[in-house]
UniProtKB/TrEMBL annotation:
It comes from Atrichornis clamosus. GO terms for molecular function: nucleic acid binding. Residues 117-138 are annotated as: Disordered. It holds the Pfam family R3H. This is SPAG7 protein. The gene is Spag7.
Length: 196
């Protein structure tokens, strides 16, 4: 029915207008954010998938880094970062867990991890030697593997000198890649000319 088609068209135009208006609003907000000197990152209100994709696009055009966070579709939101304050993996993980990012706490955690690693290293250095097998497994199988035969066999093996390389003498085609490609193109052109 024509009235349904007209209604659909009107709806689509309205949707398009809303997207354009939303994009303009986001462009203004992003440019305010860029001019705000004391603001390294900005968190936007939760928005739907289309709005988030528009905001990501605006941020990319403006030369910013942007990420979406939040588990379910209703609460997903976008965070925009200035390039010089791009988030570390730890910072991103905190947002993904739904936590606030605290650089001081992260630094403290990092120091504790380093300390733990140093202690572990120190314990390894002065600790007892790790227990090893009481005897050499080769002794157990000496009757099968022998002792001299394997060493002698290893000595006589010799690597093939040309392994992985084709000697020039064996190459039938001595043209360079450029020459070969030019020839192929010429044949193609000729074929096209004949077809026409």
């Amino acid at each position: 029915p024509p009235e349904q088609a007209a209604r659909m068209k009107k709806l689509q135009e309205q949707e398009k207008r809303q997207k354009v208006e939303f994009r303009k609003r986001m462009e203004q907000e992003v440019s305010q954010f860029i001019q705000a000197t004391g603001e390294p990152r900005r968190r936007f209100q939760p928005m739907n998938k289309i709005e988030r994709s528009i905001l990501h696009d605006v941020a990319e055009v403006a030369g910013l880094t942007s990420f979406s966070f939040g588990d379910d579709e209703d609460s997903r939101y976008v965070m925009v970062f200035k390039k010089e304050f791009a988030p570390s993996d730890e910072e991103l993980d905190a947002y993904r867990r739904g936590e606030e990012w605290d650089p001081a706490r992260a630094e403290e955690r990092r120091r504790l991890r380093e300390l733990a690693a140093q202690q572990e290293e120190a314990e390894l250095e002065c600790g007892p030697a790790p227990p090893g097998p009481p005897n050499d497994y080769k002794d157990k199988y000496r009757h099968l593997i022998g002792s001299d035969a394997a060493k002698a066999a290893a000595r006589t093996m010799e690597a093939n000198k040309a392994y992985g390389c084709v000697p020039v003498a064996n190459k039938r085609d001595t043209r360079s890649i450029e020459e070969a490609m030019n020839e192929i193109r010429a044949k193609k052109r000729l074929r096209q000319a004949e077809d026409e």
